[in-house]
Amino acid sequence: MNKKTKLFSLLAALMMLLSLLPAALAEGAPVDISEEAHIVGYVPGDPSRENDVMMEALNAKLKEEFNATIEFKFFNWGEFFDKYPLLFASGEVFDFAYIASWNDYHSFAAKGAYMDITDLVKDYAPDVYRIADPAVWNATSYRGKVYGIPHDGLSLSTANGFAYRADLGGLEEGQKLETLDDLEAYMKAVKEEDPAIATANRDAVNNNLILRYAQFQKTGWDFDWYGIVYQREDPEAKLLLKYETEEYKELIERMVTWKDMGFWDTSVMTGQDFVNEVDQHPFGQGLSAFFGTGSGDFNSCMNFVEDYDKDWKIGYFYTKSPSGHINKNDVLNDGVSIAATCTQPERTLQVINALLTRADYQWLLAYGVEGKHYVVGEDGFPKLPEGISPDNAPINFGMHPFSWFFYDRENTMPQRAEDRPVDIINKEMDALSNAPTLYGFYFDTADLQTEMAALNDIWVEYEIPLSWGFINESVEADLANLVAKQKAAGIDKVIEEAQRQIDLFLGK
């Protein structure tokens, strides 16, 4: 080979490397980006009013850097739980999907909905792999293989709780709701002040969140799989069926009392009015005393009060176990998987890696286009531009699903110089948090699908009404009927298999 030929060979190699350079900036495997990729995935929620404007800017960046574009298809919360399973049953070809432990992640993994990315993450999502706590990969592992990307695992604590109107119910300045008795007195006073204000708090499938919080505070039970629980600090994690306990009976009796006191009515059994945005929820309209399920919702309420110049005061109620602790955060509260139908997993992971770990992409997803959708305030945090009010804001701040489970929070998202009320609450919870015995354990129900389906039907028909205090015969008789139905559906088999897996998890 002569010198000229060698020179042309070197130049050709250099040009090839330059074509791959955007994909190889992180320490991952190079990806051939010579052909444009269009990446499609499904996420929960509703797009912002000017989502298309944000997406145009986002895709311009992705096209320039990765020769790729991305398309988010949204399932609103009212349809998410129904349409998500149909998505995989339909055979539709797409690239990624939102995942969460509360959305039966492991069940979908067992059915082959997601792609095995065990050997792909390190090469094609290197920043995600580098930043994530090594323990988080257990959360999205199924039978030894990784099928998804959970959030980074850096959040220390979580707590069952909700924001509430501290200016209602006769609360004195600085007075907090901390116990079930506090909560009962508050709801009673709120109903006496204005019977039209709702005091119920529920999630998208009509769970009584108040009962869930009351249960944790009274018992410290964890796991709670169709009533199967264990005491969170029991080193043996011995399972029991809560419906057979005196503690649960007393909790249901309290719910009956609260229902009879008018804290809710039969409307809690119908509809799917779970809404993430404060201004679209009855709370924002002054028709509900409670909003949300976590400290982030408390922060949203505080921002709502400030943005709309409300003279309201907002408190945050969260529950601790009898020992005074709360659980460390579930690292699979949010996440993303590559769909089994994906034909371009390397390109998809490459783009997801950038969206989850880089400030330029995170700010765009969470806040929109700078100058149009937000400006940076004196505190360094995004705020609405002059002349735009929260009720007509084109972008719902922080509500894009890909800004829920970002990585490297301190470097990718704006940080305020001073602690806000939510920061103080989070520090309180972090100080109280520890890991329950089964932290990181996930129950493999692949061989129990018949039992799971039957138990779910029983839960909907019998347990949900009980949880709201709606009784057919008596608390004792209705609980006995619930247990009998479960026994016939195979609950004992489920308990036996769950305990077997737990014992293996604990090294027995």
Look up the CATH topology of the domain at 27-155 and 331-407: D-Maltodextrin-Binding Protein, domain 2
Kindly report the name of the CATH homologous superfamily of the domain at 27-155 and 331-407: Periplasmic binding protein-like II
Task: Give the low-confidence spans.
Answer: 1-26
Largest sheet: 5 strands, mixed
Any idea what the radius of gyration is? 25 Å
Name the helicity range: 25-40%
Mean pLDDT: 87
CATH architectural grouping of the domain at 27-155 and 331-407: 3-Layer(aba) Sandwich
**Count of distinct strands:** 17
N- to C-terminal distance: 66 Å
- Helix and strand content put the structural class at alpha+beta
- Total helices: the number is 17
Strand order of the largest sheet: 2-1-3-14-6
Q: Give me the oligomer status.
A: single chain
Shape: globular
Top CATH class of the domain at 27-155 and 331-407: Alpha Beta
- Report strand %: 5-15%
